[in-house]
Design a protein that fits this description.
Two copies of one chain form a homodimer. Chain A is an alpha+beta fold and 222 residues long. Chain A contains seven helices and eleven strands. The longest helix of chain A has 29 residues, at 123-151. Chain A binds a DNA duplex (30 and 30 nucleotides) through α7.
Chain lengths: 222, 222
DNA sequence: TCACTTCCGTTGTAAATGCAACATACTCTT
DNA sequence: AAGAGTATGTTGCATTTACAACGGAAGTGA
């Protein structure tokens, strides 16, 4: 276990913790490192999970299977990423997705039960873990909310303006850089890349925005 | 305060608690009932909030203001609903929306700081509040995730099938009732109601689904 | 410099969507 | 049963979008 502490420590769940504290925390949470062969299930649909997974080595994939058996990839999970935290915190909800190892992987399983508090563990440390968990969940809800706000806009132009407007507010300036390339931005906003490029051109012609590569500026209009 | 315990107790934050425990819990969380006149701000953009609000009486509205000053309504919050829980749990993120009283309102403000744990409060009770908070946040992330999965589908038909497929999986049956009427379903999936109705007809003609009012059935195809 | 790749913008076309307007069906009240 | 009001289905049309295909620009490595 000790050899992995470096990776473990970097995850948001153990934020603000020293290596020593992380080690203790992992112990509190009943941490166990499990090996999964490429192609095997880590979590399976309809399971009720109580553990959060943390990828120490390898890679996993979250897949959803619909009514017809069609599979679609929801997310890829690499080293240092955690998964299952939402379902592990929902007692009455069984997993709606499969998590599969796409390479031979080592996964740290952490039991997030409230049990820890009662067993005379270091309470201050436990409180920090819980605090971190809350931050992770809150940030997730926050991010998803922002995304939904953009993609619920009906037209490509509105989606772009919604996104740009947010960026402007965040950077407290009418001009800002974005972290997406065109394809990524199109995926994020759920539109076609070329259609988006076209719309960007139009918006520029209409004098609403100006841009150069990944630098954008909102021009004063309404 | 005591007169409101009935309302307070019903919120998810105090789930599984008796009236007596709820009273204690509110005390732990430094609960204060504040009055807001119609039209006044409860929370304002750029604030860093530490309190969760709970509507005891009246009604509030969450609004976002974009770069151009245009306002749009994000949500309405009525008696028994809580708000601000996501931002209150994010230390470094200031509020991106305004919360405004749309009627004269009484709001219970609850301080969710980790402070409680240290001050010799009833630990078991505190743990349950935290557990409830975690459940609320996890459920929020879960719900948003599901919605995003549906609305990121590119066509109306795919969105509908994504939604129906989930309903089928949930009810473990190919036929099920839905809780939305057409307009609500259209809003949820971010499509035009009439276009959606048309698509439903087509899907029925194509033999993919059968439906009557709010009862739907997925027919075996791929 | 020359291939090679990746990213981005442009064009044309077919298809999907939003929108408005109307028709029909259902619900509720009196 | 009548009538009002609401929910749902249908139609036609204008617009938007996705998709495919291409060309140019910029970056990379030999």
């Amino acid at each position: 276990m000790d050899e992995y502490i470096g990776i473990i420590q970097k995850t948001p769940l153990f934020k603000t913790m020293s290596a020593e504290e992380t080690k203790k925390a992992v112990e509190y949470l009943n941490g166990r490192v499990l090996d999964y062969k490429k192609g095997t299930y880590i979590f399976q649909r309809n399971e009720k999970i109580k553990n959060i997974g943390l990828v120490i080595k390898g890679e996993a994939r979250v897949e959803r299977e619909d009514y017809y058996g069609n599979r679609s990839i929801i997310a890829s999970i690499g080293q240092g990423d955690i998964f299952g935290e939402v379902y592990a915190c929902l007692e009455n909800t069984s997993l709606g997705v499969n998590v599969i190892a796409v390479k031979d992987s080592k996964i740290l399983m952490l039991n997030m039960n409230k049990a820890g508090l009662e067993k005379g563990f270091n309470q201050e440390l436990y409180a920090r873990i819980i605090q971190n968990l809350i931050s992770i969940l809150a940030f997730k809800a926050y991010s998803l909310n922002r995304k939904i706000e953009h993609i619920t806009k009906r037209s490509t132009r509105e989606k772009l303006l919604s996104f740009f407007s947010e960026q402007a507010v965040i950077s407290q300036s009418s001009s800002f850089d974005i972290n997406f390339n065109r394809q990524e931005l199109a995926d994020y906003l759920c539109v076609d890349r070329s259609a988006m490029s076209l719309e960007l051109s139009k918006m520029s012609k209409d004098g609403i925005i100006a841009y150069n590569k990944n630098h954008f500026e909102l021009l004063k209009h309404s």
